[in-house]
Amino acid sequence: MKYIIAPSILSADFGNLQRDIEMINHSEADWFHVDVMDGVFVPNISFGFPVMAAVKKHATKPLDVHLMIVEPDKYIEDFAKAGADRITVHYEACTHLHRTIQLIKASGCKAGVALNPHTPVTLLQDVIEDLDLVLIMSVNPGFGGQAFIHNTYKKIQDLKALMQGVNEELVVEVDGGVGLQNIAALVSAGANAFVAGNAIFAADNPTETISKMKSLTTTAINI
Ligand code: DX5
Ligand code: ZN
C-alpha cells in the first residue's frame, strides 16, 4: 500500500512561496495540496489561478487541487490547464455530480469528491465506481489549523465498506487537523492520503515533520 503525504500550501508563507515549494520538492512529500476557496461555498477566500500557476512553475510533484467553490463545472477546464493532476469537488457544491465527475475526467485529470463532516459516505454509492479519490473532511472546510473531528475514523471505515468489491483502488484522503498525533490511527482506519497544513508549516522543521509523518504511515499496523 502506498501512502501519500500532501502538504497544504494554504499554510505556506506566501511571501516565500518558492522557498516553501522547494522545501516540499526536496522532502518525502508526494503531492502538493492546493486549497481553492471562493468566499461563497466556504467563509474564506484563498487564492486562484495566478498563485496556482506560480506553484505549478516550481513544483516537481503532482498538484492535488481541492475546490471549495460553488459551480465548479465553470472552472474545471481552467484548473486542468493551470496544471492540476487531481481535481476534487465538494459533494455539497454539485447539483449534477455525475456530470461534474465526467467533466474532470474529460479534462485529463483524476477525479475526486470531498465530503463535509456532516455528509454521509453512502451518498456516493452511485458514483463510487467512477471516482479516483474521496476526500473526507475532518474539519469544516475554510481554514487551516482547526481541530480534528473524531467521527472521521468511523467515516473512513464506512467508506472502506462501500468501496469493497466495487472500487478498491480508490484513494481515501483525509484533510483537516491531521498530524503526527493521529496519522497512524487514520492509517489503521483505512486512509491512505493525508493532507496537512499547520502540522507541517508551523513545525520547527517542516521537512523532518513530513519525514516523520511518512514513516508513521509505514510503521502503522493496518487493521
Ligand atoms: C481546510 C483545507 C485544508 C487545510 C488543512 O478547509 O481544505 O486543506 O489547509 O489545514 P490543517 O492541516 O492546518 O488543518
Ligand atoms: Zn484541502
From TrEMBL:
Free-text cofactor note: Binds 1 divalent metal cation per subunit.
Residues where a divalent metal cation binds: H33, D35, H66, D175
Binding site for substrate: S8, H66, G142, F143, G144, G145, D175, G176, G177
PROSITE patterns: RIBUL_P_3_EPIMER_1 (PS01085), RIBUL_P_3_EPIMER_2 (PS01086)
Names of the cofactor(s): Zn(2+); a divalent metal cation; Fe(2+); Mn(2+)
GO molecular function: D-ribulose-phosphate 3-epimerase activity
Pfam families: Ribul_P_3_epim
Xref: InterPro entries: Aldolase_TIM, Ribul_P_3_epim, Ribul_P_3_epim-like, RibuloseP-bd_barrel
Sorted UniProt keywords: Carbohydrate metabolism, Isomerase, Metal-binding
Pathway terms, separated by semicolons: Carbohydrate degradation
Active site as annotated: D35, D175
Enzyme class name: isomerase
EC number of the protein: 5.1.3.1
Lineage: superkingdom: Bacteria
NCBIfam families registered for this protein in UniProt: PRK05581.1-4 (NF004076), rpe (TIGR01163)
Function (record text): Catalyzes the reversible epimerization of D-ribulose 5-phosphate to D-xylulose 5-phosphate.
HAMAP family: RPE (MF_02227)
Protein name stated in the entry: Ribulose-phosphate 3-epimerase
